[in-house]
């Protein structure tokens, strides 16, 4: 089970994005797996994909490859855990989507994160201190 980060999602949709070729190649390897997105990632992606054409490509990608919305049971506890995580890494400027990906990978051990943010590999950890497993 793979959670897709914003940079991979935008890279897939936007041909002018610097990650487009890499994301497309990685997608070829990952597309047969169960792929999920979370709402903070979709929020960022829609913000970055400004044109109606690119937003339609995003919708088509999600539908065609059955990329599902991750069923996250949001709660005060989850939010508090994300805020604590954010404060722990404040000097590296993570955003809400980064926090939620890290927290969810700790709660559901089957999740791997598809991201090109180097901090997921080098700095950021799950709340228990373990490494965040990456899809690529």
Short overview:
The protein has helices spanning 6-13, 20-30, 39-48, 52-64, 76-88, 96-107, 119-122; strands spanning 2-4, 35-37, 68-69, 112-114. It is an alpha/beta fold. It has a domain at 2-69.
Taken from the alpha-carbon principal axes, the silhouette is globular
* Straight-line N-to-C gap: 13 Å
Residue share in β-strands:
5-15%
**Biggest sheet descriptor:** 4 strands, parallel
Strand order of the largest sheet: 3-2-1-4
Order of helices and strands: EHHEHHEHHEH
Alpha-beta content class: alpha/beta
Number of strands: 4
pLDDT under 50 segments (min length 5)? none
| Individual helix count | 7
Q: Give the mean pLDDT.
A: 95
**Radius of gyration over C-alpha positions, nearest whole angstrom:** 14 Å
Question: What does this entry look like structurally?
Answer:
The structure is a single chain. The chain is α/β, with parallel strands linked by helices and 136 residues long. The protein has a domain of 68 residues. 52% of the residues lie in helices and 8% in strands. The chain contains 7 helices and 4 strands, in the order E-H-H-E-H-H-E-H-H-E-H. The chain starts with a strand and ends in a 14-residue tail after the last helix.
Fold blueprint:
Blueprint: E1 2-4, H1 6-13, H2 20-30, E2 35-37, H3 39-48, H4 52-64, E3 68-69, H5 76-88, H6 96-107, E4 112-114, H7 119-122
Parallel strand pairs: 1-2, 1-4, 2-3
Helix pairs in contact: 1-2, 1-3, 1-4, 5-6
């Amino acid at each position: 089970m793979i959670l897709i980060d914003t940079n991979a999602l935008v890279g897939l949709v936007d041909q002018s994005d610097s990650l487009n070729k890499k994301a497309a190649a990685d997608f070829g390897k990952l597309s047969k797996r169960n792929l999920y997105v979370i709402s903070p990632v979709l929020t960022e992606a829609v913000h970055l994909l400004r044109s109606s054409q690119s937003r339609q490509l995003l919708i088509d990608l999600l539908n065609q490859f059955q990329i599902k919305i991750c069923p996250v049971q949001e709660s005060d506890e989850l939010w508090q855990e994300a805020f604590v995580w954010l404060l722990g890494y404040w000097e590296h400027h993570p955003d809400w989507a980064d926090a939620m990906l890290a927290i969810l990978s700790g709660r559901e051990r089957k999740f791997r994160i598809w991201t090109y943010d180097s901090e997921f590999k080098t700095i950021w950890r799950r709340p228990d201190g373990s490494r965040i497993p990456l899809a690529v």
